[in-house]
Design a protein that fits this description.
Low-confidence stretches: 1-11, 14-21
CATH class of the largest domain: Mainly Alpha
Strand content: under 5%
Structural class: mainly alpha
Mean pLDDT: 90
Radius of gyration: 20 Å
Number of helices: 14
CATH topology of the largest domain: Tetracycline Repressor, domain 2
CATH superfamily of the largest domain: UbiA prenyltransferase
């Protein structure tokens, strides 16, 4: 399916929507443009990775710098994502009231804000955490802003899969902040977050399919339809179950985490599979269930991971 994207110019610093008649901005606009909901969910995984590596021997100051530095880097990515997507956002009811497409913030101000956040976050990770943590932060930022937002989000259904690389970096940053290196457990953390993301975002894509179509986003539900998207969800949800359980086999977590990870993964797979029997009129309702389940999955998994690490509350409780 071809679509004309010639009107989208991510380089132009003063699009038409930033007019002299724009409403005045407030400090809240600078907060909301960082997408606090995304920051919070990703910080859970940073915290989980840090705690898993620490095994309850916590360096509080290092944890603080890791969370703060990673927050700034992720906020930078979200701000620059808002800048690059400003014209597309103006075509979607869900996003057209954001500060940039509505004209409350100027493109120049948003770009400068995003760059300052990114440089500050990477500098903090490099000097106060570790060079490896800063490198992972840079890779995540580059993939999210340049590869995902500026390129693939406008051209390919693979945008969600490639973008999942950046979304899987936060737990790695938390983990290497403590260990100083990447090992198998770190790779399992990466794999869990990488496999979790496509079904999560495709569920949102199904709910907002017509909006994404109007805006010109070639997301999988738009280009190939809901049926093909369900099949692709299964391709990620199935391997997510064993990958999420692997930290137990390497002694990083206890049996409670193992059971919870298996139950959560199989439960999510069941919810996705049920979608094959859902009539077209109920597709959005089903997609909402998948999306909500995915958020709860991540929250519960991270919580149990923290509580059931070696020496943790659950590990001691069941000894």
């Amino acid at each position: 399916m071809s679509r004309d994207l010639s009107a989208i110019n991510p380089i132009n610093l003063e699009p038409a929507e930033n007019s002299a008649s724009a409403k005045p901005y407030t400090w809240k606009d600078f907060v909301y443009i960082t997408k606090p909901g995304i920051l919070f969910s990703n910080l859970m995984t940073v915290f989980g990775g840090f705690w898993l590596a620490s095994q309850w021997t916590i360096d509080g100051l290092l944890l603080l710098w890791t969370l703060l530095g990673t927050t700034l880097v992720m906020a930078s990515g979200c701000v620059l994502n808002n800048y690059l997507d400003r014209e597309m956002d103006s075509k979607m009811s869900r996003t057209k009231t954001r500060a940039l497409p509505s004209g409350r913030l100027t493109a120049r101000a948003v770009v400068a804000y995003g760059i300052v956040l990114g440089v500050g976050g990477l500098a903090m990770l490099y000097t106060l955490v570790s060079p490896l943590a800063a490198l992972l932060g840079f890779i995540g930022l580059f993939v999210y802003v340049v590869v995902y937002t500026a390129w693939l989000k406008r051209t390919s259904v693979w945008c969600t899969t490639v973008g999942a690389i950046s979304g899987a970096m936060p737990p790695l940053i938390g983990y290497v902040a403590v260990t100083g290196n990447l090992d198998l457990i770190a790779l399992f953390l990466f794999g869990t977050l990488f496999l979790w993301q496509p079904p999560h975002f495709w569920a949102l894509g199904i709910r907002r399919k017509e909006e994404y179509r109007a805006a010109g986003f070639p997301m999988l539900p738009v280009v190939r339809g809901t049926a093909a998207t369900r099949v692709s969800m299964i391709r990620y949800a199935v391997p997510l179950v064993p990958v999420s359980m692997m930290p137990y086999l390497y002694g990083a977590v206890g049996p409670v985490y193992l059971v919870v990870a298996a139950a959560l993964g199989l439960g999510w797979l069941y919810v996705i599979v049920k979608g094959f029997k859902v009539p077209e009129a109920d597709e959005n309702k089903w997609a909402t269930k998948v999306f909500v389940y995915s958020i709860n999955y991540l929250m519960i998994l991270c919580l149990v991971m923290v509580l059931d690490t070696t020496g943790g509350f659950l590990a001691n409780l069941f000894q």
